[in-house]
Specification:
This protein has 462 residues and is mainly alpha-helical. Among the domains are: 177 residues, Substrate Binding Domain Of Dnak, Chain:A, Domain 2; 131 residues, Orthogonal Bundle (Helix Hairpins), CATH 1.10.287. It contains 8 helices and 2 strands. A two-stranded antiparallel ribbon has the order 1-2. Strand 1 and strand 2 form a beta hairpin. Belongs to the tektin family.
Length: 462
């Protein structure tokens, strides 16, 4: 240790417990150590560090002396130096460790943020395809409903179509009982023969169309099942990706998952994923377009067939009497009114079901609001606060109660309207029965048969 500067000036002397400048030189004792006692006599000894200490180790029953003062001070310096080195090493290690932790956490946060963004992007992609599948499935379901209505319509038409053929055949048999002078092939008989041939032709055409509808229905349901399966997978995937994107380091659902980084052998690629979904949508759209084209063709068939049948019936029924014609018009109007009443009754019944479902939906909303209020009553101490959420929930319960009451009032009015429609339907059916009885009485046998010829609506399957 330096105790003088370059000019030889004195510097601050180190503490007494550290090595002193005079420790570098052998000491010159001013007197010799006297004997300390008969049991431990001191003598001059010499060591490498201590120099001439002037005494040997002195021991008695209370203490033992092994080193000199310079050795003691050198030992203290060594202890301080070792301690300082270890403390400096520990500080460097702590600084490096803190820097490593900061860098590691920054890198982990950056990677986690990028992964979260990737999950959100993927969830948006899945949601977009899921939405497209939902629209396609809804369109497919609507088309299936329309095609099913057309199928029932064809069934009713095939059933109704037997009536004109039966009437024409029976009318021909009635005309065969004419007297010999009237047994001629007149215009009425020719028109009846044409009507029988026309009914047979239309029946064959509708039968072929019915088979096409059955095939198209299978194709639509197959495409619908495929889209629903893909949609179900995408719903599960979207829920999983949304859950993963919303997870954080503080989420309570975090667990160690050994082997989570494996790649399953049956995983798809983004390209094959999109190709598969596009193909599924294309299959569904193709089936839907085929159904639309088939319905369009069927409508054209109905338009032409009903027109031909009605034109032929008009040619046959030209000889009907005015009174019979008026009665028949009245009967047709009553049948149309009954059909309109039935349609309105069906709409009313559907509305009643919708209103009942709506009240059930409001019941769930009411349960949710009341459950939230009840759960918030469990807050303790100052946390039990009349905050904006509390008033909003109370207002929601009040609003839901008013809305439920309004829906129940509308439901009651609709049910009363349904009862009136049922009564009106009974009245209309009774009036139709009366008019048919009148027609049976007023018409001749041949005119009675012609009066049962179906209307355009019935022939169209409605």
């Amino acid at each position: 240790m330096e105790h003088r500067d370059a000019c030889g000036d004195n510097v601050e002397k180190p503490p007494a417990y550290l090595p002193q400048p005079e420790d570098d030189y052998p000491p010159k004792p001013e007197y010799s150590m006297e004997t300390l006692g008969p049991w431990a006599t001191g003598s001059v000894t010499c060591s490498t560090k201590g120099g001439i200490t002037g005494l040997r180790p002195v021991a008695d029953r209370y203490s033992i002396t092994r080193y000199g003062p310079s050795e003691w001070r050198a030992h203290n310096l060594n202890i301080f130096q070792q301690s300082n080195e270890k403390i400096c090493d520990a500080q460097v290690t702590a600084s490096n460790a803190k820097q490593c932790v900061e860098q590691t956490y920054a890198a982990a946060d950056k990677t986690q943020l990028e992964t979260t963004e990737d999950l959100k992007t993927r969830a948006n992609v899945v949601y977009r395809w899921k939405a497209e599948l939902e629209h396609a499935i809804a369109a497919n379901v609507e088309e299936i409903g329309l095609l099913e209505a057309e199928r029932r319509r064809v069934q009713r038409s095939l059933s109704i179509l037997t009536i004109p053929a039966s009437i024409a055949n029976e009318f021909l048999q009635l005309r065969s009982s004419r007297l010999e002078s009237d047994l001629v092939r007149d215009n009425v008989e020719e028109q009846l023969t044409k009507e029988i041939a026309l009914c047979s032709e239309i029946r064959n055409l509708l039968s072929r169309t019915y088979e096409q509808i059955e095939t198209q229905m299978i194709e639509l349901k197959t495409a619908k099942a495929r889209m629903e399966s893909d949609w179900s997978d995408k719903v599960d995937t979207y829920n999983i990706d949304s859950l993963c994107a919303n997870l954080s380091n503080d989420s309570p659902l975090l667990l160690w998952k050994a082997g989570a980084t494996r790649f399953p052998a049956d995983q798809s690629t983004p390209t094959s994923y999109e190709d598969f979904t596009r193909e599924t949508l294309a299959v569904g759209e193709s089936a839907r377009q085929g159904s639309i084209n088939l319905r369009s063709t069927l409508n054209k068939i109905y338009i032409n067939s009903v027109k031909d049948l009605r034109d032929q019936a008009t040619c046959i029924d030209i000889a009907l009497a005015e009174n019979v014609k008026l009665t028949q018009d009245c009967l047709q109007q009553l049948e149309k009114e009954l059909l309109r009443c039935l349609h309105e009754l069906a709409s009313t019944e559907k509305l009643i079901e919708e209103l009942r479902d709506s009240t059930k939906g409001l019941n769930n909303a009411m349960k949710l609001a009341q459950t939230r209020l009840d759960n918030r009553l469990n807050r303790h101490n100052v946390e039990s606060c009349r905050d904006a959420a509390q008033f909003a929930l109370i207002e929601e319960v009040k609003s839901l109660g008013e809305q439920t009451s309004a829906l129940l009032a509308e439901l009651k009015c609709t049910e009363e309207s349904q009862a009136k429609l049922v009564k009106t339907r009974g009245t209309l059916e009774h009036e139709i029965m009366v008019k048919r009885k009148t027609l049976y009485i007023d018409k001749e046998r041949g005119q009675v048969l012609r009066s049962f010829f179906p209307s355009s609506t019935d022939l169209s399957g409605f």
